[in-house]
Structures are given as structure tokens and as C-alpha cells.
Design goal:
Blueprint: H1 2-35, H2 43-69, H3 75-105, H4 114-139, H5 145-174, H6 180-215
Helix pairs in contact: 1-2, 1-3, 1-4, 2-3, 3-6, 4-5, 4-6, 5-6
Length: 216
């Protein structure tokens, strides 16, 4: 009974950890959508909130680690579950790094490419939503592996779209009349945004591996 209680605690903490990570992403997308149209109001506050939420997510992950090491879940999946949650935690880390970059360095001329940047941000939010649905399917007691895989496939498809937007926009920027340093600055921002979805896909890969081991 004690093991079952610990497993329930892990699931509850994992849901809380996912919620905090999701909130960091929402804050980043909202703040950066404002930034690309020249609205800087709320950027500092969003950055501070993301930093706080990322720290809280780290604390939750440590609680989960302690429960797993104390015997929650079978040894065959314990390590995979922790790697999954660590991969999700790195999504929040990437969000924090991206928003800190914008808040501290304020890349210029972003308004010239506002539509593409907005597309990239919206797709990043969609990418995490697909991962969120896949995780909901996994933690559901009636776990539907087909549904999980469908959402995981959506993550991969959206991540590919983001890569394409990044490639196209990078090419457009470097063919513009901006100074080289300005082009490189914008390209660096694009890489920071893209790394968020890269990490979402990494977490999805961990989830698919865990789901296979859970049904063997």
C-alpha cells in the first residue's frame, strides 16, 4: 500500500511539474508576441515569473526524485520516468534562457519579421500542447497507447514546421540590408526559440520509450 501511495504522489507531483512548465511557456509566448510588435510592457515581469516558476519546477523534480529513489514504481521504469520528467524540466530551462536573452539583450528590427516570429511562437505552444496531451494519455489509468502515439507524432510534425520556419526566416534575415551583427543577433534569438521545441521533442521521445516499457 505504501508503494501505491508513493506512486500516486509521484503522479500528482508530475502533473504539478507539467503545469508549472506549461505556465512558463505561456508567459514566454505572450511576452514575446508583445515584444515583436514593440510592446515591452510586462516583459520584465514575465521574465521574473518564469525564473520563479522554473525554480519551483526544479524543487518539484527533486521531490519526485526522492520518492522514486525510496521505492515508487517498478525498478524497470523508475529511471525512464525520471529521465522523462528531467527532459520536461529542461523545457522550462530553455524557456527561461530564451526569455532572459530577450529581456537582457533586446534584439532590434524584430518587428520587420513579426509574422514569422509569431508563427514560430504559436507553433511552439502547439508543440507543447501535443506533448501535454500525450502525457495526459500516459498518466490516465486507462492509458491509451494509440492516443499517446498520435499526440507524440503531432509533436514531431510541429517541430519540423518550426525548423522550416527557422530556416526560411534565417535565410531571409541574412539576405536583408541589416548590419551583420544585427542579423546574427536575430538568428541567435531564432535558435533560442527553436531549442524550446527541440527539447519538447526530446521529452516526447523519452515518453514514447517509457510507454513501451510500461506495457511490456
Amino acid at each position: 500500500m505504501q508503494v501505491l501511495k508513493k506512486e500516486k504522489q509521484v503522479v500528482q507531483l508530475a502533473v504539478d511539474h507539467l503545469r508549472k512548465t506549461n505556465e512558463t511557456l505561456k508567459l514566454m509566448v505572450a511576452a514575446m508576441r508583445g515584444y515583436v510588435v514593440g510592446d515591452l510592457e510586462g516583459l520584465d515581469e514575465a521574465t521574473a515569473s518564469v525564473d520563479q516558476l522554473e525554480s519551483e519546477a526544479d524543487d518539484v523534480l527533486r521531490e519526485i526524485r526522492d520518492l522514486l529513489y525510496s521505492g515508487a514504481f517498478l525498478p524497470t521504469i523508475r529511471g525512464d520516468l525520471y529521465r522523462l520528467l528531467s527532459a520536461i524540466d529542461k523545457v522550462a530551462n530553455r524557456v527561461e534562457i530564451c526569455l532572459d536573452f530577450v529581456d537582457q539583450q533586446r534584439p532590434d528590427h524584430i518587428e520587420d519579421y513579426r509574422a514569422a516570429f509569431k508563427d514560430m511562437l504559436d507553433l511552439t505552444a502547439e508543440c507543447f500542447d501535443a506533448l501535454h496531451r500525450a502525457l495526459d494519455a500516459y498518466f490516465d489509468p486507462r492509458v491509451d497507447i494509440d492516443e499517446l502515439r498520435q499526440h507524440a507524432s503531432q509533436v514531431s510534425e510541429i517541430e519540423s514546421e518550426i525548423d522550416e520556419v527557422q530556416r526560411t526566416l534565417t535565410s531571409t534575415i541574412f539576405r536583408s540590408d541589416l548590419e551583420l551583427a544585427e542579423k546574427q543577433h536575430l538568428a541567435q534569438l531564432l535558435r533560442h526559440i527553436a531549442r524550446v521545441s527541440d527539447q519538447i521533442e526530446n521529452a516526447t521521445d523519452e515518453l514514447e520509450l517509457l510507454s513501451v516499457k510500461s506495457i511490456i
